[in-house]
Structures are given as structure tokens and as C-alpha cells.
Amino acid sequence: MALTGSPAGTEHLRRQNTGLVLRSLRVDGPATRTELARRTGLAKATVGSIVGELESGGAVTENGTASTTTVPSGRGRPGKPVTLTGEAILGLGLEVNVDYVAAVAIDLSGRVKVVETRPVATAGRPPSATELVELATDVRSSLIASGHTVVRATVAVPGLVAHDNRTVSWAPNLGWNGRELAAELEHAFAGGCPTTIDNDANCAALAEASHGVAVDVEDSLYLTGTIGIGAGIVQRGTLLRGGAGFAGEVGHMPIGDPTATCGCGRLGCWEASIGLRAMLTAVGMDEQATPLQTATAVADRAASDDSVRTALAALGGHLGRGIATLAAVLDPSAIVLGGYFVPLGEHVVPAAQQVLAERLPSADIHLPEIRLSTLGIHAAALGAAEHALADVFTGAVPL
Amino acid sequence: MALTGSPAGTEHLRRQNTGLVLRSLRVDGPATRTELARRTGLAKATVGSIVGELESGGAVTENGTASTTTVPSGRGRPGKPVTLTGEAILGLGLEVNVDYVAAVAIDLSGRVKVVETRPVATAGRPPSATELVELATDVRSSLIASGHTVVRATVAVPGLVAHDNRTVSWAPNLGWNGRELAAELEHAFAGGCPTTIDNDANCAALAEASHGVAVDVEDSLYLTGTIGIGAGIVQRGTLLRGGAGFAGEVGHMPIGDPTATCGCGRLGCWEASIGLRAMLTAVGMDEQATPLQTATAVADRAASDDSVRTALAALGGHLGRGIATLAAVLDPSAIVLGGYFVPLGEHVVPAAQQVLAERLPSADIHLPEIRLSTLGIHAAALGAAEHALADVFTGAVPL
DNA sequence: TGACTTAATTCAGGTGTCGTACTAAAACAG
DNA sequence: CTGTTTTAGTACGACACCTGAATTAAGTCA
To answer: What b-and-e string marks burial along B109-139, b requiring 16 or more CB atoms within 10 Å of the CB?
Structure first.
């Protein structure tokens, strides 16, 4: 246990309480100052001061008219509800992958302001970062031109990200090893914009926890599957990273069919049993343009073909065994399936849930729920944007 | 993601900075006020004020003489180093098990002040809590009589502990289900002493991270083995609990020999391959009074018996496979083996480490180290005591 | 129109941190 | 032996923040 923590001054206090107010507005919606004081436990005077600052900073607005949200309660002076608009304050989320780059910008209230995807021509060569940098600077410039401020940016990367959240340690799909991606982007952003990077599964997990099907729980596990399998772990509302930042690399756990050969050369890796390729050979079908299209085609076939359904159920069993392992270790309240599992949900989840119920040691006490992601292809970028704003809500960033 | 956080006033600030000073003194040793200011980043005046308070509270003392710790650097007025003595301020750690109860008290500097163990006569009946309560009140009374203050108490329990850290959800060995143990103890403590409970593996993990072989890392995994297998997970210096507090229940992960029958009735549980019973049948020996004695006898036999050595190496392989799984999920910097694995260390660790190196996806980048616990039988109680003091160091508790 | 009720702001008081100036205690130079 | 230099610790004023009570604002109801 090394030394942690930093000195705290009075302005740190203010930031913390500001974060508290912002979180309350986001989680429980608009409220009057008095109501906010009740929610947060702060004194009315303090809330008044904080709201005043936020208002002049453009983070919140007094909706003088549409006070229909809270019942006026009849008597007394009616309060003016304060709403988290924060249209001016944006978090920029970026995603880089082998065949596309994407950008999502959200404002403080969580509203998505911009979504943009650009294909990347991968002529066999490992992709450069130029497309990413171009997209990022383009989106940011146009946002700034329209009067917004981009407080932070985060990039979701398919690979291992170092613990400093600035370096790509190992991204075999991209061929980026030890790349200082955060510094590159910061250099490209005129005027400066603090930038971090994170694993794509981590970002998607964050997206599910903040906007998706895991909003109601504090501890969740996100599982994404395409050719490889990756996990993002949210514990107490924050991402679990591990000593080197490599937590959640669950694809090569020895689970499932012990004789299956994995792309990594070893035997018995989980993704050799439940990865896209394994699924395709099990159902006897071919790969299509994208994992999602492939999975949708398989789901269509399953509607008519019994053997496909049995193969998928068997895959669901392997999936459930791995989930049981993860659940025993992490005890999440909800497990979210993303990636190619989404179209196949109805065919794999029941089998997985059943295995989970059988295998979980504390099943009689506590059984986590398996849910399907609804966020679609931009989950990782959305989570990255959310991550970019996270420091605002904790109060680490001023305005 | 639900609403989290609480309002912060100025006195909260002081507690936080006090915690910072205390942690610095503990982690990096005694220091002068100026040195503390440099370490923590606080202003000299602030440190002076905080140290003054701590001194009058009995947490630290000015060792006027033994200033040999820091080199006087020649010139200038020599500083008076401040040492974390805190002899008056104690954390009480308790452990309850099927055949004994134990108590450990440590002071702020981490020095162990009291260790006491009492056997429990289990005449087949599930043990009551009377022995625990008696031991706890006895130890606490005598400490108070000798002028100490017991700030907090924590009980390590072999079983599932609810997320509130006050209720035993499920402890089959003790037959305690849904027992409000924390409340019972608080009721027994005259004058009141905030009490929490926690899983024994969690406590032992904390002990290793604060006093044992994992002091140098922030993320560690503790694995204890007797008849069952349990894990304690430390991430960023704090325990990982999970949504219901059941994280770390790794004994029944489907890993190892898939045909082995587990005590829980299922097939292929990890502890059916590496638990004490499995180990004994593998080496063909009988159980003795305690798991540690049993393991020591096996280790003795291994010195002369080749077949025992091979059996243990095979067990080490199963151990390694499970560790590889856990390491892939959690990415710990160190893995600590406790329980009956300690005497068998030289026979199982090499095989486990080899499997780990083979199976870990990021082996070329980052390979966690497997270490053997050195804390002995009182690890859980020591960790519980550490846990009891944790709130002092975070600043959540005044004095 | 006036009493009542509730929202929001103002104001004084307390606590905390910080930087500067000041005092204290040593080594060193002459 | 005295004065200078250097560093440790403290005293003090300025500033920021939170809080509770008093005050003002803005409605409803009789």
C-alpha cells in the first residue's frame, strides 16, 4: 500500500460540493434550490451560491416557465427549478477500431450532441492515427465554433491501455504498442484539451452504467464479444483497472471446451468457445462484413433451423460457465452482454442464465441478472464521452 | 449508478488532511514538520496545526532525542521529527472460526499490542457467539483499563458478509445465517464501540497489503486454502466487495479437474481440485488436527517421497490455472498464498507460476508474482484490526 | 386587501488553508 | 567569542468556504 491522496484546500471543498449538486441534478433531475439542499444535505445558502456559479458558468439554467416538473405544492412562493443544461460544456468521446473511427459528444445533462463515424481504409497495413486525429480535431473545432467548450476527451481503444491512461500498451489489432496516443491527440488539439485513453470494453461498461441497462446498479460487469472477448468491470460506480491497467482481459481464461484452439495458439481459451469464429463453426455458417451483421444472420437462421438453436444453446452454456466464474469473483449486480451477443440474446441468454444459477455458490442468496445491451455500435464512444465528463461530476475539474 | 457522496464542510477538510499526514507518517516513517509539508504538499502552517492537534490527542509524539532517523543535513536549526506512536489509539481485530476465536489489537503505528487466542469447544453444535463476545469484551476492557482507547472493532468471519458490513449472510461452518453480529457486539461493548464485520479472506488480504508480503503494491490478490478456497481482493489499496458483498467466492469456480466432486454437490469446482481434502487424496495421506499441521506433514513426506512431490506439482498446476483466470480478470501486481499452501509452497508454487506464465494473455508485458504469506494464523485478525483503523487514516473518524 | 406560507438571498460567525513575516536554534566564519 | 548564515517552526492577516438565522421576495388563500 503506497501513499495516496493529495492536499485539500477550501476550493477543493467547493469543487466537491459542486460535483455533488451536479450529480444530484443528473441522477434525480431538475429541482429548486431548496429541494437540492434537501437532497444533498448542504445548507440552502451554500446551494444558492453553488447554483449561482454554475448558472454564470452556463452549466445550469433556471427554467422560469416549465416548472411543471415539481408539483407547486399550492401555498407559498413557488421555487424556480434549476435544470442541468450545460449545453456549453461537453465531453468528447472517441473510438478507434480496425475499420472505423467514431466520435460522440455529450453535454452535462447526458444528451448526445454529436455522433460521427468514419470508415477507415485498412489496406492491410496497420492503421495510422491520422484518421482518428482528423475526426477528433474536426469535431472539436466545429463544436468550439458553435460556442461550446470541450472540457476533456477520452479515446476508447481495442487493446491494453497502461495504468496512466495515456499510453497504448498493446493493441495487436491496430499494431500499436507503447504508443503515446493521449499526448499525440493533446498535441493536435489547438488550445489544449486534456485527453485520456481507455480500453474499449471499459468504456462500453461505463456507457451501460451511465446511459444503458445498468443505470440502476453500482456494480456491473460488461462483456463484449466479437472475435475476442473482453470485459469491463464497474465497481462502486468506477472502473476497475488492476495493477497495470489490464484488468478485464477475460478472453483467454481457461473456460469452455478444453480442446478448442484459440487464435493465440493455446488450448481451451474462453474465446475459443464463445468467440465469433467458434460460434460460426458451431452453427456452420460464414462470416459477413461485420460481427453484428453476422450475428443477425445467424439469429435469422436460428428461427427456422433447429440445429442452429441447439448450437447456440450450447454456446450459451459455455458463456454461462464463464459468467459464473466472473460473478463468483466480482459479485456484480448486473451483467451486460454487448457485441455480437446482442442479436443472439434470446438464443444464448436462457442457457447462460441457467448455468449461472446452477454454478453460482451463493445462488440462493444472490443471483445477478443477465441483460442485453441496447446502446448499439457507439457504446464505447459514448462511454468514453462519459468518462471525459466524469471529472466534472467528481469536482476535479473547475467550470 | 446511483447518487453517491455526502456534503463536505470545513471540518471534513481538516479530517482529510489529518488523514493525509497520518498516512504519510505511517507509510514513509517519522519526519519533521517541514518534511511532512514537503511530502504531503500542505503548507507548513497547516502541518504545524495538524501535528499540534495530533500531539495533544496522543496520536504522535516529538522524539526530541532520537533524531538519528533523518540526517541533520548540517546547517540550520535541526527539526524535531514527529513519530506516529498513537499508543493510546487502538484498532481491535477479532476472528471467529469453528475451533477458535482470536483477538489482535494494533496501535496507529501498526504495532501489535495484544494477541490472544482461545479455543472453542464445539461439541458438534454450531458455535454460539458467546466465546467471541467474551474474548472481545475482556480484551477491550483490559485495554481501556490500561489507558487505551479502542476506536473501532472489526470481526473476521468465515462466510459471506452482507454489503452493510454488519450482517453475516451465510456462514455454513458456523451455522450463522442472517445474524446481526455487529449489532450484538456493539451491544456488548460498554460505552459503545463502532463494530463492523468482514469476510476472513478479505481481512487476511488487507493484512498482507498492510503488514505482509504485499506492502509494496496497490493491487493484490490473497488466496487462502483450507478445505474451502477463498479470495480477498485489494484494488487501489481498498477491498473489493461486489454488489452484495460476496466478491471473492472463488472456491466453486469451474476450474481444475472437471470430474472432481465438490462438497457442495457439484462437479468441477476449483476447491474440489486444490482444497485440502483433494490434496490429501492426491498424496494418499490422512488429515490431522489442523490444516497447517496436515500440510506440514505432507511437506515433510514430500522431502522423501517422489510420488508426493509429483502429486503436489499437479495440484500446483490446477492452482496456477485458477490463478491465471483470476489474474486475467483482476490484474493484481502480487498474489499472496495463505492457509495450507504456505507449508507446501516450494512444492506447488513453481508449477503454479509456470502455468500462470503460460496462460496469462499479457505474460510478455506483465506477470504477477506469487508470494507466500508470512503472517501465520493471525492474519485475519490482524487484517481486521487494520480495517478497524482504516477510517482513522482516511480521516472519517476524528481523534 | 391582508395574513400566511414557502423560496431565495443576505449577513455575521466559525473553521480551515495559505503565504509572509517573524522567532528559534543550530553550524560556521572570522 | 561574536556575528552571520541557514533552516525549523510559529504567529498573523488574508482569503475561501459552509452554516444558521434573519430578511426579503413571491406567491396562495380568506
So the answer is: bbeebbbbeeebeeeeeebebebbbebbeeb
C-alpha cell at A54: 454554475
DSSP 8-state symbol, B174:
T
The whole-angstrom separation of Cα B150 and Cα B173 is: 29
Same-domain check for residues A163 and A59 = no
Mention every residue, 6+ apart, whose C-beta is less than 8 A from residue A116: A102, A103, A135, A139
Report pLDDT digits (tens) over A65-118. Answer: 444 445 556 677 888 899 988 778 899 999 998 888 999 999 988 899 999 999
φ and ψ at A144, to 5 degrees?
A: -65, -40
Q: Which domain holds residue A49?
A: 10-84
* φ, ψ for residue B265, nearest 5 deg: 100, -15
Buried b (16+ CB within 10 A) or exposed e, B355-366: bbeebbbbeeeb
Backbone phi, psi, residue B221, to 5°: -130, 130
By the 10 Å C-beta count (0-12 exposed, 13-18 middle, 19+ buried), B339 is classed as: buried
d(CA B252, nearest CA chain A) in Å:
6
Q: Cβ B331–A169 below 8 Å, yes or no?
A: no
When CB atoms are compared, the residue of B41, B246, B247 closest to A7 is B41
Q: What CATH number has the domain bearing residue B18?
A: 1.10.10.10
In-domain check, residue A399: no
Q: How far is B356 from chain A (nearest CA, A)?
A: 11
The reply to whether A213 touches chain B by the CB within 8 Å rule is no
Q: Both A93 and A76 in a single domain? A: no
Residue A4 gets the label, from left (phi > 0), alpha (psi -120 to 50) or beta, of beta
| pLDDT 10s digits, B18-77 | 999 999 998 888 999 999 999 999 999 999 999 999 999 888 998 754 444 455 566 778
**CB distance B197 to B168 below 8 Å:** yes
DSSP state of B146: T
Q: List the grid coordinates of A203.
A: 468504456
Q: Round to a whole number and report the distance in Å from the CA of B79 to the C1' of C30.
A: 27
- Which tens digits make up the pLDDT trace of A255-298? 988 899 988 888 889 999 999 999 999 999 999 988 899 999 99
